């Protein structure tokens, strides 16, 4: 059977990793002497995080904006502690990605900031060295999912035709964005269902 893809581009949170936004906000709240909802207002309700994910601010500007929102200095160490506490790599998904890398190109695209790019290996050490040199944040691309540009830049970096890349994400709008950009898309729910889709595409699994 002919394999229908040459490459797979994975989302990180919700696909390769479990991620709890509430845990992150709780830890940030503790570090800043406040609570989860205040941390949510600073990071998300203000749109600050989305601007950082789109590459609109570098690390210094991002941390300064967070500190201004909290009314006190947020250290890089406290930011990192909260993100690490909220993130757990899924070993079985990493093992699957490693198996797939034997016959397909693999990459990772996450809606995240330059700060996350700096600390990806600390936040999710189980993804490396497998994704070394092929893990990208939206900030690097200057556009967040579901905008076409971020997918197409990854396709170029992977040296793969967009139509031969399967993009895997747990957010339907991001999958739709990938399809609009010319990639194949798969809405991730469970690993078992994903493996069934890979077999349908002609990918042989152990």
Topology of helices and strands:
Layout: E1 7-10, E2 17-19, H1 21-31, H2 36-45, H3 48-53, H4 59-70, H5 76-85, E3 87-89, H6 91-100, E4 105-110, H7 114-123, E5 135-137, H8 138-141, H9 148-158, E6 165-169, H10 172-180, E7 184-187, H11 191-200
Parallel strand pairs: 1-4, 1-6, 4-5, 6-7
Antiparallel strand pairs: 2-3
Helix pairs in contact: 1-2, 1-5
Shape: elongated
Helix content: 40-55%
Report the average pLDDT across residues. Answer: 97
Strand order of the largest sheet: 5-4-1-6-7
The helix/strand class is alpha/beta
Given the structure, what is the number of helices?
11
Stretches with pLDDT under 50, minimum 5 residues:
none
Overview of the molecule:
The chain is an alpha/beta fold. It contains eleven helices and seven strands. The strands form two sheets. Strands 5-4-1-6-7 form a five-stranded parallel beta sheet. A two-stranded antiparallel sheet has the order 2-3. Strand 4, helix 7 and strand 5 form a beta-alpha-beta unit. Helix 1 packs across helix 2. The two termini are 16 Å apart. 38% of the residues are buried.
Brief write-up:
The chain has 206 residues and is α/β, with parallel strands linked by helices. The protein is 50% helix and 14% strand. α1 packs across α2 (36-45) and α1 (21-31) runs antiparallel to α5 (76-85).
Summary keywords:
206 residues; alpha/beta; five-stranded parallel beta sheet; two-stranded antiparallel ribbon; 11 helices; 14% strand
